[in-house]
Amino acid sequence: MSQLARPIPALYAVYVLRSTKRHASIYIGSTPHPPRRLNQHNGMARGGAVRTSKDTLRPWEVMILITGFPSSIAALKFEWALTNPHLTTHISTEERITTRAPRKKGQRKSRKPIHSLRSVVSNLHLLVGVSSFARWPLTLHFFVPEPKKAWDNWLKAKETTPREGIKIMEDYEPDEGSNGTKSAEPWGIRALPLDYAPIKPYVEKAHNVVKFEREGNCVHCHEALESGKGLQPMCPHDGCEAMGHLDCWSKHALKGEPKEILLPLSCTCPSCGGKINWSDMMKELTLRVRGPKEVAKLLKKKRRTKKEIAAEAAAEEDI
């Protein structure tokens, strides 16, 4: 299946690793499954990369994770640009801050620049704001304090604020308790949802409306919606089943935006008045239209175990 025919992935992330033994050693990559990928880099599972395979650098840790990409191709483009800020065309010549290292005597080619925490964070600032990526609903996750501090220092030095639509999240390793033990609660990349479970109620609501042909009229133009035909996004808010033509939703969301802007960021539902993140609505729509197998898997009811059935029977007898 081509990338264009797939639903927006539940998760596809660009990650920045650093060696816990030598913080100056940094590696950038992308993956749909950060915990598994980190295990590969640390030699706990097959795979990984040559650059992260040295025992003198392991274990590695994720210090920054960027999520919210509309496809794996989008994530790969961003990863390449962040890995090669001296070459990417997404950064203009005037703004470029990373260039090739000067050639040493006897070398035929100039050297590829070495990543540092400061350079990665600075280029991350540039990339999330360029026109190619500025409308993407990206979230920056910081799992160690140093890159977040570097991010804030960059904003302070430039006297600016993060661009609209970007989210910043911090999740650091919990401190040890008074008894010297750490919390068993997952944190960092191991606390991230890797599937569509967070939007299951939304997916189920839309699935049932389409299944029983309750689409009704477009919430915008009020024309009747043809059941099961065309692209018809639905409001994600609980209790609201407002649907409409994709084109109508888009025009509604882009009101007041410059004419050259094609990708909405958010809008309000004309029916319930709730705020809608465009990316959330598109994730459900593409899953409904392009991912019937994923929807079936998500909505499949788990078979009850004998213990659960027996417990329910015992509870009924006690009533």
Descriptive overview:
- By secondary structure, the protein is of the alpha+beta class.
- The chain has 2 domains: 3-99 and 111-191, no CATH class; 197-299, Herpes Virus-1 (2-Layer Sandwich), CATH 3.30.40.
- The chain is built from 9 helices and 7 strands.
- A 5-stranded mixed β-sheet has the order 2-1-3-4-5.
- Helix 3 packs across helix 4 (145-158).
- The mean pLDDT is 93.
- Forms a heterodimer with SLX4.
Q: How would you briefly describe this protein structure?
A:
Helices cover 32% and strands 11% of the residues. By secondary structure, the chain is α+β, with helices and mostly antiparallel strands.
What features would you highlight for this structure?
2 domains, two-stranded antiparallel sheet, Herpes Virus-1, 319 residues, single chain, alpha+beta
Helix content: 25-40%
- Low-confidence runs: none
Supply the number of helical segments. 9
* Shape assignment: globular
SSE succession? EEHEHHEHEHHEEHHH
Oligomeric state of the chains present here: single chain
Main pleated-sheet profile: 5 strands, mixed
Number of domains: 2
Report how far the terminal alpha carbons are from each other.
53 Å
Fraction of residues in β-strands: 5-15%
Average of per-residue pLDDT values = 93
Per DSSP E runs of 2 or more residues, the count of β-strands stands at 7
How many whole angstroms does the radius of gyration measure?
Answer: 24 Å
Spatial order of strands in the largest sheet: 2-1-3-4-5
Q: Structural class, please?
A: alpha+beta
Cofactor: a divalent metal cation
Subunit structure: Forms a heterodimer with SLX4.
Subcellular location: Nucleus
Pfam family, one: GIY-YIG
